[in-house]
Amino acid sequence: MQDLTTPPQTDPLHVYRYRDGLYGVDLLTAAVVHLDFFTWLNAHPSSKKSICSHFKFAERPTDVMLTLFAANGFIEEFEGVFHITALGKEHLTKGSPWCLAPYYASLKDRPVTMDFLKVLATDKPANWGGDKAALDWHKAMETEAFSQSFTAAMDCRGQYLGQAMARKLNLEGRNRVLDIGGGSGIYACSMVAHHPHLHATVYEQEPVDRIAARCIHERGFSAKIEVAVGNFMEDPLPLDCDVHLFSNVLHDWGTEEVRKLLIISHRALKPGGLLIIHDAFINVDKTGPLPVAEYSALLMHSTQGKCYSVGEYSALLEETGFEPGAYHDTAADRGFMTALRK
Fold first, then answer.
1. Are 12 and 160 in contact (CB under 8 A)?
2. Residue 8 in domain
3. What pLDDT does residue 143 have?
4. CATH of the domain at 45
5. pTM beyond cutoff 0.85
6. Taking the chain, what is the end-to-end CA distance rounded to the nearest angstrom?
7. Predicted pLDDT at 132
């Protein structure tokens, strides 16, 4: 059986941050060079709604952009109005002798920088290709080479993050975990390894279910973890689980889809059932943490989602029939929130 209870001897935080923060510079470049955003904001302190209206931007990517700039200390928000800070004014506005916009100009034609201009305007991920792209992805998942690549990506991250989450969870008195959109099943395996009284079900659609089943077997957890097949956006969830886990799932989706997934979870859980959201979280006042704000820029670029704040999740949980619990840090700028089904 694969050992999923022993952490690495060294801390990989900076290795995670290099990858997760990769697109932050491109979003800043788009704002500084193409939009001259900070010069405009200096002259026109504005609400998020007014910023969207002026630049003809969509709300989701604008929210991610403003959070990134607030986390960097370039802007600050007072009573719903965003203002430029002394740092932003001195180094990011035209007319200042210390303006660094020309330094960023050499990056203006980077493909991801140009992508962000489109995402801000359309709210569509840069890799958005419609149903045909989705169909091609499913077909690719049936090939051995692609499935191996997919599994490696899930496992190399989840082996570390899953352990960090499982160690901090109190699952006393719980029986079965439903790992919704669980990919290779690495998080379910970590939870069972740390809490031996648990059983688990990984809920995935075809053909990922076959990959999950194979990986669970290879790790030695087949006796305690099964795989159920379905589309979590369309099909009812299994009813025999008293814990639901969304691990690195909700950040791929927009607010309406997140709300829908929470409603679907609520329907399948009995009163008192436990919901766990494991992800990278923005803080309540949406001023950071900076590494999460940078990661949110990557998600905004390539998915329909973003990193949601603790406050945003709390509001959605309340709205969909849950009692939100506290946020807990785990590792690599990740953490979890729990909630009880009312």
1. yes
2. no
3. 63
4. 1.10.10.10
5. yes
6. 37
7. 45
